[in-house]
Structures
1.
Amino acid sequence: MPRPTTETLTGAQIVVRLLERQGVRTLSGIPGGAILPIYDALSQSSLIHHVLARHEQGAGFIAQGMARASGEVAVCMASSGPGATNLLTAIADAKLDSIPMLAITGQVPTPMIGTDAFQEVDTYGLSIPITKHNFLVGSAQELLDIIPRAFRLAASGRPGPVLVDIPKDVQNQAVEISEWPAPGVADPVLAAPAELIEHAAAMINAAARPILYLGGGVVHSGASELAVALAEKASLPTVMTLMALGAMPVDHSLSLGMLGMHGARCTNFALDECDLLIALGARFDDRATGKVAAFCPQAKIIHIDIDCSELDKIKTAHVGICGDVAAVLRQLAPQVGAQLRAPWLSRVAVLKAEHPLRLPGVDDARTPYGLIRAVADGLDEFGDQAIVATDVGQHQMWVAQAYPLRRPRQWLTSGGLGTMGFGLPAAIGASLAQPERTVVCFSGDGSILMNVQEFATAAEEDVNVKVVLMNNASLGLVFQQQTMFYGERIFASKFKGVPDFVKVAEGFGWRTLDLDLTDDPRAALRRALALRGPMLIHASIDMREQVLPMVAPGASNKDMIGG
Amino acid sequence: MNAINKPEKQALARTVLELDVNNHAGVMSHVVGLFSRRAYNVEGILCMPVGDGVSSRIWLMVGEDIRLDQMVKQVEKLEDVLAVRRHGAEHQVFERLEEFFR
């Protein structure tokens, strides 16, 4: 056997080599003093393409976009101090939506830690509550253990963000390397106890009015097909959380679409009547359940989640199974009997007919719903090849209600944290991960300004991102809540100064289309969407348009307003 | 808790948690952060290295609370926590320390 060759490398070079060995080919970040050794090493990598964001939060969301579209751990980088604090929102967002991400931050040299050195901040302390795990690296040697571990942790079980804070002296420290660790991969999933599976199957077989409730965990575990197959076999009407949209095609006969605050009336009414709720990778978020005591009041609950701490957290499960959704479904499906469940399905059909999701104006491309459908129609025959990203607000809910989402990982949205500014950088990341797809980012005039600087990154990378900007010159969801719940006292939600977004985008080197100025918006959209490269599509929306139906925060889901 | 007087406070049921953890800077912060961010008071804390010092043991005295089961699950999820054991308030670890707090 040949003796292993020994190399002398710096901590920075080790980081870059370990990233290469993990298969990282694109990462995003912004350099700064305390991370310059890593950037110097990165400049010598022929494998890794560095995407220079224009704000660290943008870099964080670009990584999220890559991770959400691909399911793989994505990497972002920032320097110490403000670089690290700017990343925090994107990290917190990844934590709440269980997105596998590795954030690498530079830190002041070890001897200066704790001295209030220039651009020093306690990145480790700040990131504890918003990461799955975090590290402050003590030596270059430790990197050989920490970097693969960070990838393993980010990808294992319930995915999430991991932060590695590396002092500058550690980046510069040279060590001899004779052997490289294996890349970090997700831990294997364990089989669930057979008696729990049997119990769950018996409950499904005995239920008269069951509903399948899909959460983001179904997408993360790659269990969409298995979940749809179970629904079809056992005739289970199926609801999805915001995070699960696309797991079951929205036009599937068993789909009841999104549940909760902005779900259709029929969806929330069906949940109110069900006698068994089968929750897969869902965490009973308050936007989904409404007032918890009134959520599925007649139902027994089967809860399957890979994070054991989610079981019994909000609702006590009659059967709680801690396990990977895909693995559990493989065990469960053979024991679930095929059923037609005609009475329940016909009851659901009646609810759908009497209380459908109403999409007023859907045939008029100058209304919110009509614009969304026109974009979907203009993309491809079924509108499901494209990736759809959103920012946060009214436009996000309109798209969640009206876009024909049909495949997992088609839909990228900030669900848990609800971060305005998510959309544009996440769309850039998705396009970098899957350049063959068109990425559409629906945004609003409030959200787009929160990471508007990433227009520059998109132009530089020439990504195929189309931003559909629904401009109502207001913070629409705030305006709506003030109208509905605060006696129409509209305050701080109407913009007096609205930028000329078309000029702004042109200034960044984007092509633009102003739908307000076109006679045939559908034809103009089709032409614009077919062009490769970044494109802003601007459309004015009436400020008084509302997202309906709506459940007031804290109210029961069956007490919906409007729609 | 301010509305409760001292004797009443002591009458509240207590639980003692015993945690085996990796011994490095920051582990304590991970553990107590889980409690503080839920406004869940930790009444007593003890921590010492065990054996060769690679791991430590943390003893926590906390109030019995409906959130305790969830807290234990959250603590178990921490990467640096190796094991969690629950004891009743009768456990001697804090009792025997009381002479240092008179």
2.
Amino acid sequence: MGVTLAARPATVRDGSGRRRLRVRRLVALFALLLALLAAVTLSIVYGARSIPFHAVWQALANPAGGEADIIVRSLRGPRTLVGVLVGLALGAGGALMQGHTRNPIADPGLLGVNQGAAFAIVLAVVVFGVHSLYGFIWFGFAGALLAAVVVFLLGAVGGRGATPVTLALAGAAVSALLYGLISAIVLGNRQGMEIYRFWHVGSIAGRDFAVAGQIAPFLLVGLVLAVANTPGLNTLALGTDVATSLGQNIRRTRIVGVLAITLLVGTAVSACGPIAFLGLIVPHLARAITGPDYRWLVPFAALLGAILLLVADVAGRLVSGDRLEVGIMLALVGAPVFIHLVRRRGLVRI
Amino acid sequence: MTEARLKADGIRLGYGERVVVDDLDLDVLDGSVTVIIGPNGCGKSTLLRALGRLLRPREGAVLLDGKRIDKLATREVAKVVGLLPQAPSAPEGLTVADLVSRGRHPHQSWYRQWSAADEEAVTRALSLTGMAVHAERIVDELSGGQRQRAWISMTLAQDTSLLLLDEPITHLDLAHQIDVLDLVHRLHTERGTTVVMVLHDLNLAARYADTLVAMREGRIVARGEPGDVLSEQLLSEVFDLDAKVLPDPVAGTPLVVPISAHLRPEPS
């Protein structure tokens, strides 16, 4: 992949280097938007049965109720939309998570959000008898939020406030506890097991426009908070002491960041299960294009997240006739890509 | 040189259970260079952190223009007080120009992004430190001395009238140490910047300080002009160091020449 680092000739400062970088980023942004458009098109056209462009157009503009119309309007259309939303969320959430922890292998699930959502969904099925996807999402979201709050409070115990290390430790502990509880519940409950297994793989198939409408408001708020958090992240990247000296309110920045991550990742995971690797890899790809400026990195990571998720989903449909869910495809393709990145460039210090 | 914008008033500082500094008063005289010296662990960096509101006193208060610094909006403080911690680290791939631009953070907000004043401050900071030629280089790829000058440029871009530096010359070779301290001296004489810094090298401390503050075990043992403070008796009191103090042949300030154990005259 065309990974290039920021231009670095030892020129006299005349603003030209900065202007060049700006132009390069704008060009890359435009290219990513085109790529997203292409991925959306692929996702609607290709599948178990491919639909020619004119039929797609007709289905969108002037549906007559034919088979192609139904596939586009009620299956692939919503699936694509959910894919875009969830991809944006996981990409931005991953970039924020790595920024806040200054840890290049931090995963957006680090705050216990994934297991929190999983636990609430299992409870919903086993205890409350909820069986519809719409119902799960509310439970999953509440679980993700609750887990993140508990992790944040635990991480802040001890007086010096929540630091990246205490947050990661608290997240790992809460996740382990919840995972144990989930196992204990689903092992004794066949129906819970079925639904948990189905959800846990990570998939954007079978989600309709109602699901997209249900998650969109939360994701939009999350994305706005994420973008608002980026100037603060730029100062935090210099260390908390420097950030404080520069007048950054560390606690407020962390709270906004945790809130944004929880909204983005909690919503995505509730709707589509824990989609592995996306939030981990995408910030690295974005960083290779933009450099370490989070005001650019976060939007780039969001776009790349959406593109990659759609491409992996389409690839799964083409390779296996839709038996390989996107979560599996991403893990299969993502792991080698990640290993390649790490071997070639080393893990970045952030 | 009678006013003190920044003061510590009976502060007690510590981490966890441990009290590092107790009941300490300090007035930082405006437009002067104050250098804090003392043995390892005496609380000098802790004091500097408190002056820069990175550490909140358990008792007493740090006052900026007569107001408690922890009650002021942190962004407003950042327009007046700049602080460079020990050995800061930059994210990989950050250019010098980007690093220095981040010094403008307190002057920006979501409705006021990059302005002409920001651009001017960054350009000025880079030329003051002689880093303009390296502006587009990556911070990681600079030599130790250049990297320190890049970080100092960042705090200069912040455009504060007070500057706190925590061991700014540690890990630099002697030529680069002089480089950085000459820069500090120029800032002080040309811009009237008030500087407080922690230094380990006593001879350089004596040469560049208007006021020396000697600390031991969280207390100020002596303060004043270097010539008055740095005596053989003080060195033995504060550092347990056996040394001779001579006039520095270049600057005229005190020059500390330690007496090593094997060079001590045999007791007869």
